[in-house]
Amino acid sequence: SYELTQPPSVSVSPGQTARITCSGDALPKQYAYWYQQKPGQAPVLVIYKDSERPSGIPERFSGSSSGTTVTLTISGVQAEDEADYYCQSADSSGTYLVFGGGTKLTVL
Amino acid sequence: QVQLQESGPGLVKPSETLSLTCTVSGGSVSSGSYYWSWIRQPPGKGLEWIGYIYYSGSTNYNPSLKSRVTISVDTSKNQFSLKLSSVTAADTAVYYCARRVGETTTVGWFDPWGQGTLVTVSS
Q: Which chain B residues are closer than 8 Å to A98 by Cβ?
């Protein structure tokens, strides 16, 4: 079965830049999407189609893609950005959907 | 603004069938370009896509759950439902319903999500 691989954790100081990666063999063919999940809450979409930002999401959130890796970048990290972040995509056929294992972002 | 709300039993016995309903407000399940989805999250773990349904009734399921999952839609009630049979403790999770915004069948994202409901499998 197809898998997306994320680092379990990333730590940054306030005001720094956080980068969270997601790797998968089908990412050159399929878009990636990113979700933020705070404790006890449902996930919220923060990036769609690799790099598009939904309305209402702060500009400090951005996404990029290079080969088999996509990256979520949070510039000028704030304490409120501390959360779990999940990437999501599809297998090479686009039929089956999959989530990465999630990355816990800690703001020191 | 579309909102989704899950409902159903919070406790299910092993070997029985888990049944949940998602009620959609502020929008219609009959709208085109949307696929109505179920996703789950075991306690302390990551997200797992279960499947989705289009208003026409066409479905797509996670291969790892396909033999036990049925997703249906009731356009008259503006609801869609999940049934998962032969449950075990491994099926204990928070179950979310979500709208998948689909530009095509292969391009789409989950937005918005319901608040989630915890289902525990235990005797």
A: 49
Q: Which two tokens stand for residue A45?
A: 């979409």
Integer-rounded Cα radius of gyration of chain B: 14
Q: Which of residues 47-76 of A touch B (CB under 8 A)?
A: 48-49, 54
How far is it, in rounded angstroms, from Cα B58 to Cα B75? 13
- Residue B35 contacts residue B54 (beta carbons within 8 Å): yes
How far, in Å, are A60, B6, B98 from residue A97 at the CA level? 27, 21, 13
φ and ψ at B34, to 5 degrees?
A: -120, 140
**The pLDDT of residue B51 is above 90:** yes
A94 — pLDDT class (breaks 50, 70, 90): confident
**Cβ count near A54 (within 10 Å):** 14
Contacts of A96 in chain B (CB under 8 A): 49, 60, 62-63
Q: What angle do CA B115, A46, B48 make, to 5 degrees?
A: 55
Three-state DSSP at A79 gives: helix
The type of residue at A104 is K
Mean pLDDT, range A29-34, rounded to an integer: 96
Phi then psi for residue B89, to 5 deg, are: -60, -25
In contact, A82 and A14? CB cutoff 8 Å: no
The H or E element that residue B38 is part of is: strand B34-41
